[in-house]
Amino acid sequence: MRVLVLGGTAFVGRAIVDAMLTSGLSPTLFNRGTSALFPEVPRLVGDRSTGDYSALSSGSWDAVVDVSGYVPRHVGQAMAALDGRVGRYLFISSHVVYASCGPGADEDTPRREPVRDTEVLTNETYGPCKVACEDDVLARFGDRATIVRPSKVAGPFDPQEGFTHWLRLAAAGGRVEVPGDPAQPVQLIDSRDLAQLVVRLLVDDRPGAYNAVGPITTLADLIRTCASVAGTSVEIARVPPAPAPLIRADWATQQRSSARARAAGCR
C-alpha cells in the first residue's frame, strides 16, 4: 500500500512512519527536507507554510496521511495539489474540536464552530481551525475521508514532555506537588498506539471519525501508576495553581469514549 505522509519526521508523524514500515506499507514523505530520518523512504520536498506543493505535481498514492495540517489553507492546497491522485485522505485532527463533553462522549458530540479567518494558533483558535480542516476534507473526499482525533499524546520523542515530567517525579519517589486538582481527568494515548490505529484504519479502508484516546484516569492515579511501575512510593500534595504539564482545570475533554477506535483496532 502506497501512502503519502504530509510531515512524518516529528513525534506523531515519526511514530506513524515507523508503524507503516513495520507493517509493510510503502510511505513517501512530503516535508521541508530538514530531517535525515528515514533515509530509505522516498521524500518529496515542499513547504506548507509557503504553499509550495510543486513536488506533488505528479505521482499517485492509495492514501494520504495529513499529520501537519493545522489551518484550512494547508489541507485545501494539499488536496488541490494532489488533484484526484490519492485514494483515502486520513487527517490527524484533535480532541479539542469538540464544543463540550461529559464522561463517555463519543465522535458524534457537537464540535466547535469552524474558524477560517486566522492562521494564528492559540488555545482559542487551534480547535476551530482543525474543525474547518475536517469539514474541507469531508467535503472533498466524502466516504474516502478518515478523521482521527487524538487526546494528549505521549511517547518517544515527545517535544513537550508533558507525561515524562510526572513520570520522572514519580520515579524519584517522595512528595510530588501538583499545582491544581489531582483529581482532574487525564486521558493520554501513546504515540505508538496512535500510529498503529492509523495503519489499521488505512489497511481496512475505514471512513469516519475516531477518538484516538487512552483510558480515562486522573492525574493523581497516573502519578501513582508511574510510581508503582518504577517501584517507588509517592505522597501527592496539592499546592496553589501554577503552570505545569497536563494541568488544565478546563480539561473536561479528557473523558471521551474510545469505543469506536478500539473496535477498529486501537489498543
UniProtKB/TrEMBL annotation:
- The record places domain NAD-dependent epimerase/dehydratase at 3-211
**Membrane spanning segments where?**
none
Q: Which Gene3D superfamilies match?
A: NAD(P)-binding Rossmann-like Domain (3.40.50.720)
Q: Which domain of life is it from?
A: Bacteria
Q: Which SUPFAM superfamilies match?
A: NAD(P)-binding Rossmann-fold domains
Please report a single Pfam family linked to this protein.
Epimerase
Q: Sorted alphabetically, which PANTHER family does this protein's record hold?
A: BIFUNCTIONAL POLYMYXIN RESISTANCE PROTEIN ARNA (PTHR43245), UDP-D-APIOSE_UDP-D-XYLOSE SYNTHASE 2 (PTHR43245:SF13)
Task: State the name under which the record lists this protein.
Answer: NAD-dependent epimerase/dehydratase domain-containing protein
